[in-house]
């Protein structure tokens, strides 16, 4: 038996012990999703993951991928959170070899709590290392799936100085008329992140495309950027 399975069982046992029915119902209500929760706070979940790290050593990519998929296939939402915790923690295995696993996880992403971390922290990291994978971002922005559209934007979130500004700009303008708040918010979020790298570019981009960009997108783009010096309203 793979050492990953006892590790997963350990986490599940601790999730059961730490869970709360009342908290679980509130979590499910707040996110408006069908998937059930144990009702475990992020702080308690992080402690459980530390216990699991001490219990089992993940020292090869096969076990890393097994761990992610076992957790991701769990019934409860916190198991998916733990899959993301593990995916982010074992940085050595965030490579091209794991990209198909991330894509499999993406297929089940159904809310911002899952999608945003997956797209920005895992998928985006591999795409930064392998630019030929950017064709996925183009496919996703053209999809009818709102979560794929959001992923096509948030994959750029942590690219900083290495941001493919041309692709990001094209994607934002391509999605500018999209009516989904989830897409509009993500556009503003990535603009906001890149403004910390190149404020002048983002400020000019918003000014030049003010007729295309929604107020929501512009508000999100300005949130933490001290854009009071801008003439954009």
Automatic annotation (TrEMBL):
<dbReference type="InterPro" id="IPR016024">
    <property type="entry name" value="ARM-type_fold"/>
</dbReference>
<dbReference type="InterPro" id="IPR014825">
    <property type="entry name" value="DNA_alkylation"/>
</dbReference>
<protein>
    <submittedName>
        <fullName>DNA alkylation repair protein</fullName>
    </submittedName>
</protein>
<dbReference type="Pfam" id="PF08713">
    <property type="entry name" value="DNA_alkylation"/>
</dbReference>
């Amino acid at each position: 038996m793979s050492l990953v399975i006892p590790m997963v069982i350990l986490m599940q046992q601790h999730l059961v012990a730490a869970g709360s029915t009342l908290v679980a119902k509130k979590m499910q209500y707040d996110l408006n999703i069908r998937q059930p929760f144990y009702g475990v706070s992020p702080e308690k979940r992080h402690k459980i993951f530390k216990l699991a790290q001490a219990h089992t050593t993940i020292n090869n990519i096969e076990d890393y991928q097994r761990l992610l998929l076992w957790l991701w296939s769990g019934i409860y939402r916190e198991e998916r959170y733990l899959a993301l915790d593990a995916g982010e923690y074992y940085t050595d295995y965030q490579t091209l070899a794991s990209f198909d696993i991330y894509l499999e996880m993406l297929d089940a992403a159904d809310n911002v709590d899952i999608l945003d971390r997956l797209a920005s922290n895992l998928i985006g990291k591999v795409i930064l290392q392998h630019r030929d994978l950017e064709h996925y971002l183009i496919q996703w922005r053209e999809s009818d799936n709102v979560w794929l559209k959001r992923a096509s934007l948030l994959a750029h979130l942590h690219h900083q100085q290495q941001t493919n500004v041309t692709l990001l700009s094209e994607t934002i303008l391509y999605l500018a008329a999209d009516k989904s708040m989830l897409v509009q918010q993500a556009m503003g979020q990535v603009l906001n992140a890149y403004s910390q790298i190149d404020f002048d570019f983002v400020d000019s981009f918003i000014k030049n495309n003010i007729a295309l960009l929604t107020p929501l997108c512009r508000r999100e783009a300005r949130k933490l950027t001290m854009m009071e010096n801008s003439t954009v309203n």
